[in-house]
């Protein structure tokens, strides 16, 4: 499929998934009711359900999925590792330790987000600080430091789950498997997504060269060290924002970049906007299914992302020569 045609399809799919997420839920609404609630500012049950319940969550799901896909693409270029995902450097582990400790204390969700942010910033500082030696920065040392820190955070998470009483344990597990029910104020994350997408398009050519290797990039005149540091911090910011929106949602950041590449797109000028659209659409669909398949009960959205993404990935791999 030509790249411009694939991008056009994704541009159509994204608003359709958002509209479907507004249409389906525990309260049955018709397409006309959703359309009228979006356009008319008439108070009523449909208007309140759309604007106060479904719209914030659906928009949060799309932004969260887009940020995870973007972060995964960044890290796969930075580390030149096809298994790299937003959680490989321990950032989400630090956020999870901070968030779960706060949930264990029974504090509000606003404090949970602040604790997750502080934990993630601490992880970013530790990983970046230990990766620099004598003014030089080694990507392999960065990866090793992140993996070690992630293992340590996993141990602390297990300890917190063991110590948690039954009433808090369910909320902690849902946060670990992905929970978008508390995604309300998405404007900062949306602004960050737009900024990172614009920066990505600006540096897309340099990302293409860096993906060939550091030596080739230096030979072709790319300032490798500033570019690598910029990629790391952009990926870290995207991961922190996504974790604060929906907890630790797996598979999106790993699978989405590979799905787009398996469709024949490797140029980052096309790849980056496509992963943003596809990542947001996938998580929106997964979140819609998570709150409708077992309504009124909700399923962890991370489970649905795996159930949707893994078969699609395996199908494309089986058809790829």
Can you describe what's shown?
The structure is a single chain. Strands 1-2 form a two-stranded antiparallel sheet. The protein has helices at residues 3-23, 31-39, 45-79, 91-104, 109-131, 139-163, 166-177, 187-202, 204-210, 214-219, 224-246, 252-262, 268-292, 301-319, and strands spanning 132-133, 136-137. It has a single domain (3-319), classed as ABC transporter involved in vitamin B12 uptake, BtuC (Orthogonal Bundle), CATH 1.10.3470. The longest helix has 35 residues, at 45-79. The model has no long low-confidence stretch (mean pLDDT 88). It contains 14 helices and two strands; from the N terminus they run αααααββααααααααα. The relative contact order is 0.17. The chain has 321 residues and is mainly alpha-helical. Helices cover 77% and strands 1% of the residues.
């Amino acid at each position: 499929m030509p790249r411009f045609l694939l991008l056009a399809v994704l541009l159509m799919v994204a608003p359709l998934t958002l509209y479907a997420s507004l249409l389906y839920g525990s309260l049955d609404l018709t397409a006309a009711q959703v359309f009228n609630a979006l356009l008319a500012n008439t108070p009523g049950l449909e208007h309140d359900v759309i604007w106060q319940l479904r719209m914030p969550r659906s928009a949060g799901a799309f932004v969260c999925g887009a940020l995870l896909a973007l972060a995964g693409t960044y890290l796969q270029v930075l580390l030149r590792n096809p298994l790299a995902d937003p959680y490989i450097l321990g950032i989400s582990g630090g956020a999870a330790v901070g968030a779960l400790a706060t949930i264990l204390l029974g504090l509000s969700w606003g404090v949970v987000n602040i604790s997750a942010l502080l934990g993630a910033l601490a992880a970013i500082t530790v990983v970046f600080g230990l990766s620099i030696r004598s003014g030089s920065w080694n990507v392999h040392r960065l990866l090793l430091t992140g993996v070690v820190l992630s293992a340590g955070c996993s141990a602390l998470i297990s300890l917190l789950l063991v110590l948690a009483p039954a009433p808090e344990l369910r909320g902690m597990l849902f946060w670990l498997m992905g929970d978008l029910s508390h995604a309300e104020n998405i404007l900062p994350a949306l602004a960050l997504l737009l900024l990172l997408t614009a920066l990505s398009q600006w540096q897309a050519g340099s990302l293409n060269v860096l993906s060939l290797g550091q030596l080739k990039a230096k030979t072709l005149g790319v300032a490798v060290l500033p570019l690598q540091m910029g990629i790391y911090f952009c990926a870290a910011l995207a991961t922190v924002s996504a974790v604060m929106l929906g907890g630790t949602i797996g598979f999106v950041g790993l699978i989405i970049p590979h799905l787009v590449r398996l469709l024949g797109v490797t140029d980052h000028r096309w790849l980056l906007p496509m992963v943003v659209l596809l990542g947001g659409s996938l998580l929106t669909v997964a979140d819609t299914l998570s709150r409708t398949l077992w309504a009124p009960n909700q399923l962890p959205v991370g489970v649905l992302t795996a159930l949707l993404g893994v078969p699609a990935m395996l199908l494309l791999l089986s058809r790829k020569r």
